[in-house]
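Action item from last week, closing it out:
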Amino acid sequence: MRYFLAFLLATSAHATSYRVDGISGSDDNDGVTAPFRTIGRAVKSLRRSDTLVLTPMPEPYRESLPLRIGGTATEPFIVEGGGATLSGADPAPADGWRVAGNIWALDQAREVRFLFGPDACYEKGASATDIGPEQWFWEADVLSFRPTEGRSPSDYSLEMSVRVSGILTSGAGQIIVRDLTCKHFFNDGFNIHGGSAPLWFERIRGVWNGDEGFSAHENCECYVRDGVFSHNQCHGIADIDYARTHYSGITVEDNVLKGIFFIGGFHSVIDSTISGRPENIAISPSGRAGFPQSQHHPIRRATTNLRNVVVDSSDGQVGLHLRAGADCALEHCLVRGGRAGLVVDADATAYAINTIIADANDAEVVAGGSYAGDHNLYFPGRLIIGAEAYAPGQFADYQAATGNDAHSWVSEPAFIADTLWSSRASRAFGAAFDAGGFGGPDIGPVPLGTRPKEDASVLAPNATR
């Protein structure tokens, strides 16, 4: 399978390769000997197994890219983004605003769904006349905006979100998308629908969108390698129904609601970092009833595997929340900080091995459902299993009562800067982590630079079981 995927990602034998250049191209060209100017024109020419090459520009392509045709197993359809950006927003003009008091108004026929600025998403007000500083409202073909005192809309570089999604698919398969950013769309950056399978994405970014950065629906199958999903106004990633999605080397951070939300389906996340939201990863079963015999679908429960994933939470946040009907395995992960590291609701199942769960305010693990694991490291050793709460110093009682974590330890993990490093020479490390059977000592994406040499004092010498 590995070599087959590598072949697909490397192949370049395609029917026709079309180019788009938003600066020097023309829609009167043929797109082959000379580039088109717009993506929309290119879409009209694309056929099965073609290649679309975008020329990056200082400004984004203010267009969506619908992919309703795909390729074959030997000749996939390819989108070479080249580092280009698709934008769902149009820039608000500097001129043409009318001011009444502290509210500025602009004629804008197309409905504005979100209002963005550089690294900002502005809050929508209650009405055109009831908006606070740096709030906005759109109705009756008029956009209203209230700057802070002494400023005008032209000081903000406002972007009006008017397009639904960046990449859209519905039933197409055998597609590869590389090196592309989708931002400022009022729904998703990457919106995958209709049983599209398989699709491969490499080096993509879904940022500052109104809903999700990436979202797979129905029974799609997607493979994402090296992606960034941040500052989206709902979730970084939301995959629902019976989608099968696999993520490797992604960064998910600073989205408004959840970092990752899996609702039904089968998913894996490896070599990735997740941080910055009230629930960094939430998993729940699918409630979709539209599929025939959906109540019997084997992945309705939502099954997820996390391997070599760092989940970093702040005060009040939850690292990983498994809702009733969800199953998750954590292998060689770090779940750090927050109110609780791992929450397992009734009728949910979590399994952890070679994993560190540390520094949560209330408890490392709160399990009303099934929790099992071994070869783990906890700190400071607060676990709530069913009705029993185990305080630091009661880890042996927890082991005896549950039969769990026979080879696990309670010890403070060691960090050098933001990199976790556990010494192979440490007694606690040697007992908790079986590097030969369950993975090596490094947790999280391998950092640049050279790791320090091993030191037996990295972990606390008085670590307790």
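Closing note: The longest helix spans residues 2-10.
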